[in-house]
């Protein structure tokens, strides 16, 4: 690091660049985390396979681009209903049976799903790293001394738009309120005549739709391979824990924090150590503020 | 707690068959298979101590495996005694196990599992980057120096050595089933508050279980490193390994002494068979057996959570009732 | 045997128990009553070591046990049951009780013998091999008592063991509590079933909004103005007692 401590124009540029990177990254992490926190908050299920759906989204974008020449942002439009359907199917076939089971059963169900999906990808498409380079991934925008990639910006903008749309849905529609009620108290919801099975189906479908869309969005930015989901899943959980489970606004704020930690940490120590930071952050939050930074009830009382 | 005599006979039969293998054949492939089955069984039994008996499900046991593997490998690579490496590995794993045990008291179920995953990941990164010490991501080759003290053994000797490890792990699990400690652990597993009300120091017991589990896994890791001859960070600390330890125990019968070994037998056999059959298509085949594992895991955990030993027990009860 | 000195327990802004002082002598059967939310279970949690009080002391057999961990207090001879029973579901009844017996006994063999004795005492004999999870609520309550009894407590805290029982189960539990008391165990019992309380208890303490508002014999309590006021509007009819 530069020993000269005075905040001259060069340092400001660095800080600005880091800040922009943080925001761009944070938006994308938010989309991934928001689906997870919904599933976690409403269904009380830890979805260890979340990263694999992201990976499938990436492959969808890859094949659409390579075989049909479709730009990822076009694919995005169809990916949302596709992954909504995938999530719906996954719930009906797999998750519904274990929604009332013990934590361990749920853990291993989603771990099994994760293993299966990763290896389906491996068998079908090999472990080769795939990359797509649509025209916008090489366009660099320069604003006020900071530089960023057009793909990143668009990904960020779409992610933020989707996240806000979801947030609005949860807050202002009747269905959204029903879902939030179920998150608060599953038994009370049933007693009030809420069809919790339908709520869970919806939740899982939405959650997977979010993360599948996120996969499509980040396909120009990261390499596509069967285990691509793993790197995102850890951080998604850090975000969810930071923001408090089930708390969407918390997930959005948490994303920024995690992105900031990653960006700053990578700058100082190098990109390889980012998982170490996640772990430290993760453990730190769990040990000192298990209810998340925003004091929401829930993290410790996972059982209810 | 079901402690069925039939399970014990099955275990005796399995271990006896393993011990008898070198008398029947000297084929390296067969011996290697038996060694791997016993080794995986021991590693899974190690996991089972924490995951099955104490109810602390960890998905990061590869951390302890890797510590043990590196400890032995690094000692051997420097022409020092790998047994000493094993001991060092156990020591380090006990420390790491203490940390994880502490976490198990702070974090519940899925959160605990997540933290164990993260822990193993961190060790993987550290091992991959620490060029000066661990030779980074290139891995550490383990030189073969013939002799018992240097753990440079032939297949037959390895088989009996690993069999000893397996018997120790089995015996420890049996102890956990019928001893005072074991009963108390069962209480901790079932309901911690109730266990506290009955005078059980739940936090201490959980840490003890995790530490023991870590030590056993580390031992297995050290022996594995010497047997296989190469330690590579992205393999020894991988989540796939951690899942595998749990998988064997769950499919065989979680929380039973026989379970991990039975699960290991079934799964390792399947893998070996598939590997032999599909030997041409590399990555393609690798995926298939793992897909099967994933699906089987989902099914077992939903429909037969007590694993194969549980299914066998239920079948026996039904058969006895039919005869009665 | 047990003395509570001005115990206060707060949760953030809520004071669940406020300045409660109590004394229980060896061989007593003390009842604690009060409307829901009065702080009865919280008091048990403080006595048994699950909560640490903000103020006050808990002295058991001359020894200050305030803030000791629950398992340590249990080993000293003070055991509690839970209002919502917590059986070791996947274990059989015999194993459940045996784990209780292992609190004091070191050898599994001895614990098994003790467990059989307690199971017989509590009338759970025919159910011994059954999985705890499979038991109906009446038997679960019995199991809860049996398991606690197996720890050979000198002081036993029973938290609403009678809730949710039908009349015949109720009679059975009352009889069990009497027999346990006759064996020499000192008892503190939280109950809502007034009829039973009035018959069993030698002394009754009433809690309301976390404070002790009355203490006395069943007859005194039944006519205490403050007790009647606190229960006004409740379905309980003290005249039945």
Radius of gyration of chain A: 19 Å
The radius of gyration computed from the alpha-carbon positions of chain C, rounded to a whole number of angstroms, is: 18 Å
The CATH class of chain A, by name, is Mainly Alpha
Question: Mean pLDDT of chain C, rounded to whole units?
Answer: 87
- Residue stretches of chain A low in confidence (pLDDT < 50, at least 5 long) are 1-5, 297-304
Strand content of chain A: under 5%
| Helical coverage of chain C, percent range | 25-40%
Give the helix/strand class of chain C: alpha/beta
Q: So what's the CATH class of the largest domain in chain C? A: Alpha Beta
- CATH topology value of chain A: ABC transporter involved in vitamin B12 uptake, BtuC
Secondary structure tally, helices of chain C: 9
Query: How would the global form of chain C be characterised?
Result: globular
Structural class label of chain A: mainly alpha
CATH architecture verdict of the largest domain in chain C: 3-Layer(aba) Sandwich
Quick recap:
With 304 residues, chain A is mainly alpha-helical.
Describe the SSE topology.
The complex is a heterotrimer of chains A (304), B (324) and C (241).
Chain A: H1 9-43, H2 50-68, H3 72-95, H4 103-125, E1 140-143, E2 146-149, H5 150-172, H6 174-184, H7 186-191, H8 196-218, H9 228-243, H10 248-269, H11 274-288
Antiparallel strand pairs in A: 1-2
Helix pairs in contact in A: 1-5, 1-8, 1-9, 1-10, 2-3, 2-4, 2-8, 2-9, 3-8, 5-6, 5-8, 6-8, 9-10, 9-11, 10-11
Chain B: H1 5-24, H2 28-53, H3 62-77, H4 82-106, H5 109-129, H6 131-134, E1 140-141, H7 155-178, H8 180-190, H9 192-197, H10 202-228, E2 230-231, H11 233-236, H12 239-253, H13 259-277, H14 282-303, H15 307-323
Antiparallel strand pairs in B: 1-2
Chain C: E1 2-11, E2 14-24, E3 29-33, H1 40-48, E4 55-60, E5 63-64, H2 70-75, E6 78-80, H3 93-101, H4 108-121, H5 137-149, E7 155-159, H6 167-182, E8 186-190, H7 194-200, E9 203-208, E10 211-216, H8 218-223, H9 225-231
Parallel strand pairs in C: 3-8, 3-9, 6-7, 7-8
Antiparallel strand pairs in C: 1-2, 1-4, 4-5, 9-10
Helix pairs in contact in C: 3-4, 3-5, 4-5
């Amino acid at each position: 690091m530069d020993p000269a401590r005075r905040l001259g124009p060069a340092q400001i540029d660095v800080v600005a660049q880091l800040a922009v990177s943080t925001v761009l990254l944070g938006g994308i992490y938010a989309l991934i985390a928001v689906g997870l926190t919904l599933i976690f908050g409403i269904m009380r299920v830890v979805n260890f396979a979340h990263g694999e759906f992201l990976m499938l989204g990436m492959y969808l974008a890859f094949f659409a681009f390579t075989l049909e020449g479709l730009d990822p942002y076009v694919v995005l439009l169809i990916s949302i209903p596709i992954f909504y359907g995938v999530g719906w199917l996954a719930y009906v076939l797999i998750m519904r049976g274990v929604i009332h089971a013990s934590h361990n059963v749920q853990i291993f169900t989603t771990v099994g799903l994760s293993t299966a999906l990763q290896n389906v990808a491996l068998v079908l498409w090999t472990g080769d790293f795939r990359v797509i380079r649509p025209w916008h991934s090489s366009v660099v925008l320069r604003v006020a001394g900071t530089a960023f990639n057009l793909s990143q910006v668009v990904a960020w903008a779409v992610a933020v738009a989707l996240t806000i749309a979801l947030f609005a849905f949860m807050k202002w529609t009747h269905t959204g309120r029903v879902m939030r009620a179920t998150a608060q108290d599953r038994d009370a919801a049933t007693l009030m005549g809420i069809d919790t099975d339908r709520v869970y189906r919806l939740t899982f479908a939405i959650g997977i739709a979010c993360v599948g869309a996120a996969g499509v969005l980040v396909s120009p930015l990261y390499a596509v391979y069967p285990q691509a989901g793993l790197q995102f899943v850890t951080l998604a959980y850090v975000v969810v824990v930071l923001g408090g489970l089930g708390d969407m606004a918390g997930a959005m704020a948490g994303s920024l924090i995690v992105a900031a930690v990653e960006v700053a940490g990578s700058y100082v120590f190098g990109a390889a150590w980012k998982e170490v930071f996640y772990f430290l952050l993760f453990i730190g939050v769990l040990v000192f503020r298990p209810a998340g930074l925003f004091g929401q009830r829930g993290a410790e009382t996972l059982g209810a | 707690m079901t402690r069925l005599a039939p399970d014990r006979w099955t275990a005796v039969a399995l271990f006896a068959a393993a011990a008898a293998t070198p008398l029947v054949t000297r084929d390296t492939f067969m011996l290697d298979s038996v060694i791997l089955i016993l080794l995986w069984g021991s590693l899974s039994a190690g996991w089972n101590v924490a995951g099955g008996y104490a109810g602390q499900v960890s998905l990061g046991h590869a951390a302890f495996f890797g510590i043990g593997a590196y400890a032995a490998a690094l000692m051997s690579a420097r022409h020092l005694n790998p047994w000493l490496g094993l001991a060092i590995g156990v020591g380090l794993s006990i420390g790491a196990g203490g940390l994880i045990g502490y976490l198990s008291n702070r974090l519940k179920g899925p959160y605990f599992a997540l933290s164990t995953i993260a822990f193993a990941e961190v060790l993987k990164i550290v091992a991959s980057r620490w060029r000066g010490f661990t030779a980074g991501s290139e891995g550490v080759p383990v030189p073969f120096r013939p002799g018992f003290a240097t753990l440079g053994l032939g297949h037959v000797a390895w088989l009996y050595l690993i069999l000893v490890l397996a018997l120790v792990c089995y015996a420890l699990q049996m102890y956990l089933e019928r001893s005072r400690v074991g009963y108390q652990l069962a209480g901790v597993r079932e309901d911690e508050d109730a266990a506290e009300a009955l005078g059980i120091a739940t936090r201490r017991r959980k840490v003890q279980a995790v530490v023991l589990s870590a030590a056993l896994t580390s031992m297995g890791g050290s022996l594995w490193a010497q047997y296989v001859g190469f330690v590579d960070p992205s393999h020894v600390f991988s989540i796939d390994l951690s899942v595998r330890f749990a998988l064997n125990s769950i499919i065989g019968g979680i929380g039973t002494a026989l379970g991990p070994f039975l699960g290991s037998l079934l799964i390792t056999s399947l893998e070996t068979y598939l590997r032999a059959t599909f030997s041409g298509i590399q990555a393609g085949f690798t995926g298939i057996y793992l897909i099967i594992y994933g699906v089987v895991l989902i099914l077992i955990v939903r429909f037969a959570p007590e694993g194969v030993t549980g299914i066998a027990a239920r079948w026996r009860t039904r058969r006895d009732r039919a005869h009665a | 045997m047990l003395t509570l000195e001005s115990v206060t327990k707060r949760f953030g802004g809520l004071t669940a128990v406020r300045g409660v002082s109590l004394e229980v002598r060896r061989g007593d059967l003390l009842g604690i009553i009060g409307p829901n939310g009065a702080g009865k279970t919280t008091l048990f949690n403080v006595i048994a070591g699950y909560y640490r009080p903000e103020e006050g002391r808990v002295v058991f057999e001359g020894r200050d046990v305030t803030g000791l961990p629950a398992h340590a207090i249990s080993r000293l001879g003070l055991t509690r049951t839970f209002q919502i029973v917590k059986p070791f579901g996947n274990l059989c009844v015999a194993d459940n009780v045996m784990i209780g017996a292992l609190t004091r006994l070191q050898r599994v063999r001895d614990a098994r013998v003790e467990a059989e004795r307690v199971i017989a005492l509590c009338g759970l004999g025919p159910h011994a091999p059954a999985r705890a999870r499979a038991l109906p609520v009446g038997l679960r309550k019995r199991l809860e008592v049996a398991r606690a009894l197996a720890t050979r407590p000198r002081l036993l805290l029973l938290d609403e063991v009678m809730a949710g029982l039908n009349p015949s189960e109720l009679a059975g539990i009352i009889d069990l509590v009497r027999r346990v008391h006759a064996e020499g165990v000192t008892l503190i019992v939280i109950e809502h079933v007034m009829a039973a309380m009035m018959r069993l208890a030698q002394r009754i303490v009433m809690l309301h909004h976390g404070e002790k508002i009355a203490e006395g014999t069943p007859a005194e309590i039944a006519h205490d103005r403050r007790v009647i006021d606190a229960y006004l509007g409740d379905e309980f009819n003290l005249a039945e007692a």
